[in-house]
Amino acid sequence: MPYLRAALGSAWLTARGHRGPAYLREYMRTLSLSRAETQERTFTILVDRVRHAQEHVPFYRRRYQQAGVSWQDLKAPEDLAQFPIVTREDLIDGWRDMIDERISVESLHVYGSGGSTGAPVITYHTQEDRYRTWAVEQLSFHIHGIPRGARIIRLWGAPQDMAKFRGIKGIAKRWFQNDLMLDAFRMDPPVILDYIHRINTLRPYAMVCYVEAAELLARYIEENGLSVYSPQVIVTSSGPLFAPWRERIERVFRTPVQDRYGCREGGVVAYQC
After folding, report:
1. Residue 119: CA count within 13 A, CB half-sphere
2. What was the pLDDT predicted at 266?
3. How high is the pLDDT of residue 265?
4. pLDDT of 163-172, one tens digit each?
5. What is the rounded CA–CA span in Å between residue 180 and residue 200?
6. In the chain, where do the E strands start and end?
7. Which residue from 151, 205, 203, 199 is spatially nearest to 176, judged by alpha carbons?
8. Mean of the per-residue pLDDT values of the chain
9. Which distant-in-sequence residues (6+ apart) come within 8 Å of 116 by Cβ?
10. Contact 262, 113 (CB under 8 A)
11. 33-37, 118-122, 251-255: range with lowest mean pLDDT
12. What is the largest CA-CA distance in the chain?
C-alpha cells in the first residue's frame, strides 16, 4: 500500500506540473556513484553556481570584484577559501541585489528562516527551488530507510508548514504523503496526551520531529510511566541532538534516532546515514 500511495502521489504531483518527482529520480541515481564520482559531480555543480552568481547576481559580481576573484579561479575545492563569506547581515541588508537580475521579485515565493535567533530572515525562492527542496527531503527519507508512502507523523510547528496541510490541497497532500502534522509549539500536558493517543492509534512507520519537542515528549512519557508505540525510526532536526536526549528518545520509543541538519531557506542539507 505505501508504494501504491507513493506512485499515486508522484502521478498527482506530476499532473499538477510539480517537477519534484523528476528531480527525485535524478537524485536517486546519484546514490550509485562512487566517492570520486560524487566529489567530481559536486565540484562541477559548485563551479557552475559560482559562475552563475558572478554573471547574473549583482551582489556576488560586486563582491568577487572587490575580492579580486573570479569563478575561473576555482580549479579545486580548496580554492573556495579565496572567495568572500556572506554573512546573515549581508542577507538582511543586500537581499535585493542577491536576486538573479533576469528574475522579477514578484515572480518569487516569499519564505523565511525558522527564526531560531529570534528574528527570521526573509528569503525568496523560485518554484524550481521548491521542487528541488521537496525532492531532497524525499531522498533523505530514503537514506533513513523510510519507504515512500509510509505513514509519517511530524512533530513540527512552523506556521508556514502547518498551513500546507489545510484546505483541499492539504487533504490531498496528507493522503498522498501519508503525513500527519502535530504542532510542536503547543505541548502542554493535555496536548501531549492527545499526541500520544494519536501515535498509538496511527502507528506511524516514522516520526520527524523538532529535536526539543521529541525530547520533551519522551521525557513526559517516561516521567509519567506511559506507553507509546514504537516507530521504525525517529528523525530529528532543528537543533543539536545532545547525547542524553538521543538516549532518552531511543529508550522511550525503543527505536533508533537519525539526525539531520537543514535550514528553512535551503531545505535538508545533511543527514546521518
Report:
1. 4
2. 76
3. 73
4. 565 666 655 5
5. 13
6. 109-112, 122-125, 152-156, 179-183, 206-210, 233-237, 257-263, 267-271
7. 151
8. 87
9. 238, 239
10. no
11. 118-122
12. 63
DSSP states along 42-53: HHHHHHHHHHHH
Q: Which segments within 62-215 are labelled E, that is strand?
A: 109-112, 122-125, 152-156, 179-183, 206-210
In percent, the amount of the chain with pLDDT more than 70 equals: 86
Q: Where are the beta strands (DSSP E) in 102-226?
A: 109-112, 122-125, 152-156, 179-183, 206-210
- Which pLDDT tens digit goes with each residue over 115-140? 555 567 788 889 898 899 889 989 99
Location of C-alpha cell 515528549: 217
**Closest Cα partner for 229 from 204, 210, 212, 256?**
204
How far is Cα 136 from Cα 129, in angstroms, rounded to an integer? Answer: 11
* CA dihedral for 248, 252, 257, 259, sign (positive or negative): negative
DSSP 178: T
**Grid cell at residue 65:** 570584484
The letter for the amino acid at 267 is G
Query: 217 Cβ partners below 8 Å, 6+ apart?
Result: 155, 187, 192, 195, 196, 209
